[in-house]
Fold these 2 entries.
Entry 1:
Amino acid sequence: MSDPEVAPEPAPPGPPPPSGLVRRHRLSTRLWHWTNVVAVTVMLMSGLMIFNAHPRLYWGQYGANPDHPWLEIGSRGNVGELRIAGMTLETTGVIGVFRNAHGQLMARAFPDWMTLPSYYSLADARLWHLAFAWLLAFALLAYLLWSLVNRHVGDLHITRHEWSPAHLWQDIKDHARLKFPVGEAALRYNVLQKMAYCGVLFLLLPLVILTGLTMSPGINAGFPFLSEVFGGRQSARSLHFIAAFGLVVFFVVHIVMVVLAGPYNEVRSMVTGWYRVPPEPKGPSDA
Amino acid sequence: MREPISRRGLLGAGTLGVGGLLLAGCDKLNQNPAVRGFLASAEDAHRASQRLIAGGALAKEFTEAEMSPKFRANGSLTAAGNSEWEQHLATDFAQWQLRVDGLVLRPLDLSLAALKGMAQRSQITRHDCVEGWSAIGKWQGPQLGPILKAASLLPAARYLIMHCADKYSGKPYYESIDLIDGFHPQTILAHTMNGQPLTVEHGAPLRLRVERQLGYKQAKYLMRIEARASLDGLYGGKGGFWEDHSGYPWYAGV
C-alpha cells in the first residue's frame, strides 16, 4: 500500500485509520442496495394486490376456480382463512378478513396496509408492478455485470474451509449468541452472510424475475423454454410467490441483523460507504 | 404521577400515524397523473420488447391430455338483453352474420356456415386471465387473416375493432387489435370450443382468439369487425371495454 500507483484491493484491508472509519461499501453496491429498497418494496406491495385478484396458487400449466389450489387465502363470513396443503388456518385480522382504517371488516386476501394501492385495483397494481419490474431486472443485471468487472463477486466466494461443518456450526453459534465479528473480520462477509447474499443474488432475484416473465403470454411465445423449465405458467406463478416470500424472509432477517449489529454504523456504511470497525477485545489487563 | 400518554400508546399511535401517512402517500402517488403517465410509458416498452422478442412466434400449443377438465367462463356469461342477439340465439344463429366493414374495399357479411366453410385452424392453447388464472382449451375456426384479405383492407387501416353483442356492467363490450396480431396465424374466429359449438357462456356464436394476449382481448359474442385508422373517437378512445373503464393496458401481452 506504500505505492500510490498500486490499486487497493477490492475489500479494504489493513488497520483502520486513526478516525476508526474505513471504506466498506462501494458506490455500486450502495446504489444497487437503495434502488432495491425502492424496487422490491413497490414490487412486493403491488404484487400482493395482484395476488388479491385471484388468491389461489396451483401447480402445472393451468389452474382456475374449478381446479385444485395448493394454497388459497379466502374467507367464510367474517372469518379469514389460509388453506394450505389440506389444512385450514384461521387468519382473521391478518389475511383473508381485516379491519380497515374506518373500522370496517373487509374480505380480501392481503389487507390495505400491505398493498399498493391500498384500495382494490388490479389495473393500478399492475401499472406499478410491470413498470418497476424493469428497474428491478436491469438493476440486478447491471450490478451482476459490474460485480464481475470489479471482482466484488469474489467477496462472496465461499471457501472450502468455510464449507466445513465445523466452521458453519461455529458461525451459526456465533450468530445465535449475537457474537458479531470484530476488527478486520468485520470487513469481510462471514459464511452465513455469504450464503444469504448468494441466495438473494443468484437464486431468489433471478427466480422471481424469470418466473415473472414466464407469466406473460407474449414472452411465452418468444421464450417457450421458460415455461418448460418452471413446469407451466401456474407453477411459475406459485414459484414467483414463493421466491417473493423468500425475499421477505431475507428482508426481516437482514433488518434484525442490522439492528443487532449497530444500526447507525451499518446504515451509515450503506449510505456513505464509511464504517466504524468494531474494536478487537483488549488484553486482560485492560478488561 | 400518572403519565398522560403511555410510552407504548405513543409508540403505537406513532406507528399507526406513520403507516397511515405512508399508505396515504402511496395512494396519492398512485393517483398523480404525472406518475401514472410515467408508469404507463412502460406499457410501450412492453409492446416493443415483446414484438422484438416474439416476432411472429406462435403461442405454445398443448395436447388434449393437457386440457383443463373444466374451462372457467368469465366476464359476460350471456349477451341477453341485446334483442338482436337473443333472436339469433332462439334460431340457433341460422340467420346471424358477421359484418366486416370500416376501412375495407369489400364489406362482408359472413354466416356461420360461411365461416365454417373456410379453411379451418384448430389449436389447443392456454387462456391467461389478467387476474392470474389459466385454462387450456381447444378452439376451432377460420384464421382472421384470409378474411381481412377477402375484405381487402384499405391502406389507412391500422386497427381491427371487435364489436360484441354483450354489455358488461351496462356498457357495450368491445376490443381491438392491430394488424400484426390480426394477421398472426393463431388469430382465429372460433365457433367451436373443445369440439362443441361455442356455448353461450363462452361467447356464442363466435369469439376472437388472439393467443399471445390476455383473456380480456378474447372478445366474445362477435357481431362486427370494423377496420379503423385509429382508436380515437370510439367509445372511451382506449380501444377496449377494460381499457376504457378500468385502465387495463391496450397491449395485453404481459
Note: DSSP finds nine helices and eight strands in chain A.
Entry 2:
Amino acid sequence: MSRIAIVAALLGLLAVAGPLAIWGGQPYLAFVLTRLMLLAVAGVGLNLVLGYCGLASFGHAAFIGVGAYVAAIAATEAFTGSVWADLAAATAAGAIAAAMVGAISLRTRGIAFILITLAFGQMAYYAAISLERYGGDDGMRIPAAALPADLTLYGLAFALLAVALFVSHQIVHSPYGTILQGAAANERRMTALGIPVGRYRLAAYAVSGALCGAAGALQAVHDGYVSPGLMAWPRSAELVAMVLVGGAATTSGPLLGALAFTALDEVLSGWTDHWRIAFGVLLVAAALIGRGGLAAFVAGRRE
Amino acid sequence: MTAALLAEQLLNGAQLGVLLFLIAAGLTLVFGVMDFVNVAHGSLYMLGAYFAVTLVGRTGSFPLGVALAVAATVVVAVTVERLLLRHLYRRSHLEQVLGTFGLVMIANEAVRIVWGPAGLTLAPPHALAGQVSLPFGIEYPAYRLILLVAGVAVAVLLAGFGRTRAGMRIRAAATDATTLQALGVNVGALATGVFALGAALAGLAGGLAAPIVSVKVGMGESILILTFVVIVVGGVGSVRGAFLAALAVGLIDTLGRAYLPDVLRHVTNDAAASALGPAISAVLIYVAMAALLAARPQGLFTRGQ
C-alpha cells in the first residue's frame, strides 16, 4: 500500500466518521477524533523539521501553546469576534515564535540543539505561568459563547489536517524540500554548493511553528480551556515520540502516530490507572526496535 | 534591600548552583563521552530523593540513609544501562530521547505505585535543624550551609578525579572514543562507569535536596531543563564549564526572582513593573542563555569546530 493511499484512506475514513458519530449520538467519539486530527496537524508540522530537516526539535509544544493562548485570549477579550481572525492570528503567532526560537537555536548542532529547543519550550511554559491576568498556573476557560458547535469544529480540524498534509507534501516534493533533505543528509556539501542552509531551515521552522500554532488554536477552542501544561516539556517529547513511532520523514507518519497514540491512550487508560508504565515500555521498545516507524510497517517495507 | 538579605540570596543562589552542578556534572559526561542524550537523568535525582526518604526513615541516620540511597540509585542506573541503554549509544539522538523518555514515564509511574501519589517530606538531621549565625549578622539555616559545603567538596573531589588515570581515560573518551578503544581501553566498561558516576551524583543531589524540596513525582523533570541550560552554557562534556555555569544559573535565577521586580519598579511605573517583573524574572535564565548562545553557539568552555 503506498503512503499516499494510506493517507487518502485515513482522510476518507475521518471525513465520514465524525459526522456519523455526531448525528448517531456518539459525541465522545467525535471529540476523540477531533483531538486526534489536531494532534496529527501538530505532528505534520513537527515532521517538517524533525523528519525532513533532520533537526531534533524538542520545543514544539511551546508553539502549540502560543497558538492556544493567542486564540483563547482573543476569544475572551473579543478583539475581533471572528473565529477565522483568531485562527489566523494564532497561526501567525506560532510562525513568529518559531522564527524567533529558530533564529537562535539553528546556530547550534547536535545535542546542543536538542537542549536549546527544550529550554526555549520551558521558557514559554514559565512565561505562561506568569500571565496572572490569564489564569497563571491554573490556566483560563474560554467563555462558552465563543465556542463553535461540535460539527463546525470537526470540520475545521479536518480541513486544517487536509491543508497541513497538502502543504507539507508540496514542500517536501519541491526543489526547496529537496534542499532541506539534502542538508539533512550532508549539510557541508549543501553549503559548498552555495546554498544558505540556515535560512532555508529557518523558513521550514517557521512553517512548522505556524502549523503547530493553528493546531493549538483549534485545540484551545476544542477543550474550551488552556493552561501552561500545554507547553511543559514532556508534551514536546510526546509529540516527538508520536512522529517517530508513526514514521519520521513520511507523509503518513504523523497521522499514523496520532492514531496509534490516541488509540493507546483510550485503550490503556481504560484498563488501568497505571497505564503510563505500559506506554513507557512501548516507547522504550520502539526506540530499541524501531526503524521507519509504523509508516514503514504499513507500507510493507523497511528502510 | 539590606546587605544581610543580599548575602542570604547569594547563598541561596550558590546552593541552587551546587545542586544543579551535582546533576549536570554526570549528565555532561554522559553526553560528552557516549554522545548519548539521556532525558531520564532527572528520574535518577527523583529516585535518589525517594530512596533517601525511605532509607533515612529505616536506618534512623541521615548520612547512612543518604549513602544507601546513592548506592540504591547506582544499582538501578547500572542495571538499566547494562540491559537497555547501552544498546542505544550508537543510535540517533532522536531514538535515544524516545527510549529515555519512555523510561521517564516508567520511573514516574513506578514511584507513584511504590510511594503513592502524594508528595513526601524529609526532616533535616537534628544537629543541622537550626540556624547558624554567620559574620555580618546573617542568620542562615545550618542544613543549607552544609549542602553548599558538600556540593563544593564534591566539585573539588571531581576536579582531583579528573587528574587520575580513570579520569584521564574519561576525558580521552570524550575527545575520541574510537582511538581510545584502539589503544586497548574497554570503552564499554568505561561508559558504564561514567553512567554509574553520573547516577551517584544525581542520587546524591536528590538525597541532599530531599529536606529542602518537596519530594514528589515530576521533581526530576522540572530541574532537568535547568540542568540542560547549565550543560549548554558550560559546553557539552566540560565538568569545569558545568560548575561555573551551574553557579551562574543558580545566582541569576535566585537574584533575578528576588530583585528584578524591585529594580523594574525603580525604572518604570508601578503597574507595568508588577505585571512584567515576575514574567521576566521567571524567564531571565533562558534569556541569558539565548543571548550567550547567539554570541557563542558552542558554549563557554568548549572549542568550536
Note: The CA atoms of residues 234 and 241 of chain B lie 4 Å apart.
